[in-house]
Amino acid sequence: MPNPAPTPSQKPHAWRFFRAGGFDQVKLETGADLLSLDQLDQKLWVALACPTAGIEFDPKTAALIDIDGDGRIRAAELIAAIRWAGSLLKNPDDLVAGRDGVALDAINDALPEGRQILGSARVILRQLGRADAQVITVADAEAATRSFANTVFNGDGIIIPESADDPGVRKVIGDAIATVGAVSDRSGKPGIDAAKLAEFFTELSRFEAWVAASEADAARILPLGPATAGALAALRAVQGKIDDYFGRCRLAAFEGRLAPLLNRTEEDYKGLLAKDLSLTAQEVAGFPLSRIVPGQPLDLLSGLNPAHAAAVAAFRDAAVVPLLGSRTVLTEEDWARLQDRLAPNAAWMASKPASRVESLGIARVREILGGDARSGIEALIARDRELEPEATGVAGVEKLVRLHRDLILLANNFVNFRDLYDGGSPAIFQSGTLYLDQRSCNLCITVVDPAKHAVMASLAGAYLAYVDCVRKATGQKLTVVAIFSQGDDENLMVGRNGVFYDRKGLDYDATITKIVANPISLRQAFWLPYKRFVRWVEEQIAKRAAEADAAASQKLTAAATSAAGKAATPGAAAPPPKVDVGTVAALGVAFGAIGGFFTAVATLGKDLWAQGAFAMVGAIVGVMALISGPSLVMTYIKLRKRNLGPILDANGWAVNAKARINVPFGTRLTAIAELPPGAARDLIDPFEETRRPWRLYLALVVVAVLGWQWSTDKLEPHLPDVLKHRYHFPKKDAGAKADLAKPETNSVPKAAAAP
To answer: Rounded distance, CA 210 to CA 548, Å?
Structure first.
């Protein structure tokens, strides 16, 4: 619930804030800051809930703070823990230090609970052989808790079999655990408490009363004694078929013409004769029990439906013979009398209470009820309860030393995200560092279900890689999501391997299994248009090469087929090769276009150079800005929107602020490989590819072609006016040199100047 406003008599606390991640976060510098968190508006908290699992925080401490045990720590639970720990310390500032170990003289013995915890702490230190110690640590408290929990009487009101010295009582405790279930003792062993003991004896009494009711009227309820249950079961197994048989016989006696139909038709049997019938003949289980004849009793030995013959034989042996005497047939009157004899037993069985103690047997049930085991167990539970104050004291000592050490750590990763932004200790949700593609990703978060996590985390706008981490030596496995915030994604793909180091320094084999792609950095955005252009050129070259290869293969096949045909026709002469005029023209146009492009670039460069080097540099920068500018702007906008909140929310957090991952912060979360300061580098690579001046050769060829094209006037239609033949001096016209200063006479196309 929201924090209440301070009362008029309560002086508002003076808070201090720091700004990080684009939002204001409260400073927790004193014990008063912590104790006043109930006054701080929760809209100013960075988080309002966090999970107890999947974070680098002591799980035992987290369980102590998680009052309702739902696996999440909420703001109210954190405030309650701070209040409790702060009230038991003389100086609440001790909570801010976060040290392992509470000084005995720092415990507030003015409170009854403080005196109890102080006394328990001294007893613990004395039992550990450190009676003179003035500080009790988490390790001391854990040792005492384990030692106390492993005793047979540990103050939790739960008795284990080892708690009883009497073998009979110990056996009854075991029977209760086996039938009605167990509760876990403080030591983790199965036992029973007062509630389980009462439940056990209640079921014993109900079961015994039910059995006693049958014994009180045994002649009617148990006509065959213990065998009555078997007789009733055998009757119920054939009851439906016998009722059906006598009903059909009465119907046949009423109307004789129905007898053939009541016995099933011939067509019904023809369908069976086409099959391989089994010995039990389950195919005829739905047919009548025996042949229907008006007024005829049921023959118990012969003429029975094979699907039910065994059940009828068991019914005869278990019920008919013991209750009616030896006989081979059963009349309808006998059938009714037999059901009446077993009806009381059926009613008694229907009243049977649901009881888990039936497996003990009535003899053992009566033995337990007739003994004094219950009073003995109740005495043991009372004896265990007497140690409850001591148990509470030991538990209180461990809770205090744990909160004394861990509360400030949780608060600085809950109320604010100081550990994430200050660059010191990693935040509790940072599980380790991933090394992959010459980068180290410091913001790695443990996830349980990557597919479910990615649905929410994709809204963060960050480049996410889900990585499976395995230590093959021990079989340890975990899955983390790593945030890449520097470099590019050219070498990031599903299946790439790296190494993950957890917070303890253990290394794992790491493999990318899923990627949520988003912009990574401005550097990537700057070069992206050029890389796309190069990729497009490569694709076009590959496409054209593939088409040329296919065309060449087709021509080669056609030539081979044609040569084979001509060889088969003697005297046929090959036609002379023809020059494809269209191809030549196309080549001319292509070379002309290339020449025009290079000439225009050269002219532009010459004009810019004539205006100065700064103009040339400015033009280059302007062109690059036109190419990379849109990509940079779009990426910058997206990078500013990166938010850590959805990534943590998908893991069970309730982040209450826009924890942005801007460009400067992102450069710290992902580090790129750099040579150390002062390192020397040998630039000679013995495996470097041999460089050939193919660019020079290509340039010379292009220049030669362009020169030939220009000298033969084939570039005239493609050249700008400034480059046309005003500077070209024909060899046969020596007087043309005099026209050099008259460009307007040469700027007219030849076709227009001709008479």
So the answer is: 96
Helix axes 228-254 and 332-350, enclosed angle (nearest 10): 140
Report the chain (755 residues): mean pLDDT per 10 consecutive residues. Answer: 54 90 91 95 95 94 94 96 96 94 94 92 91 93 87 89 92 95 90 94 94 91 92 93 89 78 69 59 75 87 87 92 90 92 92 91 93 94 90 92 96 94 90 95 93 91 94 92 90 94 94 91 69 70 78 80 64 50 50 59 61 64 70 70 90 90 85 88 74 67 70 65 54 47 46 42
For the chain, give the longest Cα–Cα distance: 152
Domain that holds residue 251: 223-355
User: Do 92 and 172 fall within a single domain?
Assistant: no
Please say whether the beta carbons of 511 and 482 come within 8 A: no
Residues 543 and 453 both lie in one domain: yes
Question: Which DSSP letter does residue 316 get?
Answer: I
Regarding whether 188 and 112 lie in a shared domain, the answer is: no
Rounded Cα distance between 262 and 268, Å, is 12
Please state, in angstroms and rounded to a whole number, the distance separating the CA atoms of residues 708 and 591. Answer: 11
- Considering the domain boundaries, does residue 370 fall inside one? yes
Q: Does some domain include residue 655?
A: yes
Token digits for 146? 């384990």
Angstrom CA distances, 692 to 689, 695, 696, 699, stand at 9, 8, 9, 13
Strands 670-672 and 439-447, bridge-based pairing: antiparallel
In whole angstroms, how large is the CA radius of gyration of the chain? 48
Do 413 and 441 fall within a single domain? no
Claim to verify: residue 410 and residue 469 sit in the same structural domain: no
Structure tokens that stand for 666 in this block: 């992102």
- Structure-block tokens of residue 315: 């019914």
How many domains, in total, are found in the chain?
Answer: 5
Query: Do 82 and 109 fall into the same domain?
Result: yes
Same domain, 348 and 364: no
